[in-house]
Each structure stands twice: as structure tokens, then as C-alpha cells.
Design a protein that fits this description.
- This protein is mainly β.
- It is built from 2 helices and 10 strands; from the N terminus they run αββββββββαββ.
- It has an 8-stranded antiparallel beta barrel.
């Protein structure tokens, strides 16, 4: 991840220098609405290790919105190279459950979190008339702003034990594929983005921030291995000359 981030930073510096030499800076500013699907994979717990919900994973939908910017760096044979930075406030949720079919018992936990997403991407835009096609790749800051959990039970006599959580801040890697529909200096972008977070721990005990025992596990760190985004927005194109 450090090497990839370094390569991206070097590419940004080189392409920015090329764009400045061309004495032209084109940029886009806009707003985004986002739908999200989050996946926390089942933990890799060995037999006898502590686990949560019998080793269940979590998945669920969320949504949010924010602002987006794009800076055209230079023209290449295949299109325009650009640098994009978004700031999206997204509410996430993920639900997991453990069941005992023989007794019709069920325990369900829903994790919630609020994350500020800041993907910084290098991408390539190709144009066909008023329609554009984009692909970009880069690091994504996942700044945790809040988290929580709710526990529900069915046919279980003892009261549910609360699950205390904490938000986390990680740096993931994301890839984006998008289409642009332009008219009179305005652009409607539609994007699919896939986010991978390699910092999510693999085991249940490591997913707690200070695990001591089942009676004192600490706070559950709410993060997601994978996230899928669909965003739609409106951009304004600015053509500036130095």
C-alpha cells in the first residue's frame, strides 16, 4: 500500500508539471448522491477461539452524499489524464445473525457507522461526442466518525448483551468506472466504485480494540472489507487559462 501510494504521488507530481507547462487548467466541481453496499467478511477464527455470532459476517446497505472535484492534468493518446478528489459522508450498516433451527432461536446484530470517504484517484477520460467514459484508481481515506450496534433476539430467555463499538480510520484502495453525460458546460456523472480495506482484522478477537476475555472484550471496531458504491451527481465544467 505504501509503495502504491508513493507511485500515485509521483505520477501526480509529474502529470501536474506537464499540465502547468501547457498553460491550461480545466476542472470540474460538483455534488454527489451515493448508495452503498458494505461487506464485513466472516472472521478467520480457529476452533475454540472467541467469536461473535458463531463466526457470522455482516452485510447491508447505506447511503450518503457530498462533493466532488476533478482536475484535468494532460492529454494522452487514449484520452485525458485527470486527478479526482471526492469528500462523501456515508452512513453504513451491516447485519449478521446466528441461528439454531432446532429451537427456532436467533440472535441478530446490526452494525452502523458513519464514515467520511475521501478517494484520491488518477484516471483516464475518453470522450465520444457528449458522452465520456472514465476509469480511475487510487487510495481512499476512510475516516470513521461514529458507530453503534443493536442486538435483537428470538426465543432466547436471557436479555441481550450490549455490543459496544468504536469507529476506525483506515486507508483503502478503490477503483472507479464511470460515464459522463454533458450538455452546455454541465455534466451528469454516473459511477461505480469498489473499495477494498486491507486493514480490517481477520479474527474476532483482533476486531475488538482491547480484547481481554469474553467478559471483557473491549469495543468492536466497525470496518468493512469491501464496499460497493453507486453515485450520481451534477458537475460544472470550468475552463481556466493561466
Amino acid at each position: 500500500m505504501r509503495r502504491l501510494t508513493g507511485l500515485i504521488a509521483a505520477l501526480i507530481v509529474c502529470t501536474s508539471s506537464t499540465a502547468m507547462a501547457a498553460n491550461a487548467i480545466d476542472m470540474r466541481l460538483g455534488i454527489r448522491g451515493a448508495g452503498n453496499y458494505s461487506i464485513l467478511m466472516a472472521p478467520d477464527d480457529a476452533a475454540g477461539d472467541p467469536t461473535l455470532l458463531s463466526g457470522a459476517g455482516f452485510k447491508g446497505f447505506g447511503g450518503g452524499g457530498g462533493i466532488a472535484s476533478m482536475y484535468y492534468l494532460t492529454s494522452l493518446a487514449g484520452g485525458q489524464l485527470y486527478l479526482a478528489l471526492d469528500l462523501l459522508f456515508v452512513a453504513h450498516s451491516g447485519t449478521g445473525k446466528a441461528e439454531a433451527p432446532a429451537t427456532d432461536q436467533r440472535r441478530t446484530v446490526t452494525l452502523t457507522s458513519k464514515i467520511l470517504h475521501a478517494p484520491l484517484h488518477i484516471g483516464l477520460l475518453t470522450q465520444s461526442g457528449t458522452t465520456g467514459f472514465r476509469f480511475s484508481l487510487g487510495p481512499e481515506l476512510l475516516l470513521g466518525l461514529g458507530s453503534g450496534a443493536s442486538v435483537e433476539q428470538q426465543n432466547i430467555s436471557e436479555p441481550p448483551q450490549p455490543l459496544f463499538t468504536t469507529p476506525v480510520t483506515h486507508v483503502g484502495l478503490s477503483a472507479n468506472v464511470g460515464m459522463d453525460f454533458g450538455f452546455d458546460g454541465w455534466i451528469v456523472p454516473i459511477d461505480f466504485r469498489f473499495v477494498v480495506d486491507p486493514s480490517v482484522p481477520a479474527s474476532t478477537s483482533d476486531r475488538f480494540d482491547n480484547y481481554e476475555s469474553n467478559a471483557d472484550p473491549g469495543n468492536y471496531q466497525v470496518g468493512y472489507n469491501y464496499q460497493i458504491f453507486l453515485t450520481v451527481g451534477v458537475d460544472r465544467l470550468f475552463r481556466l487559462r493561466k
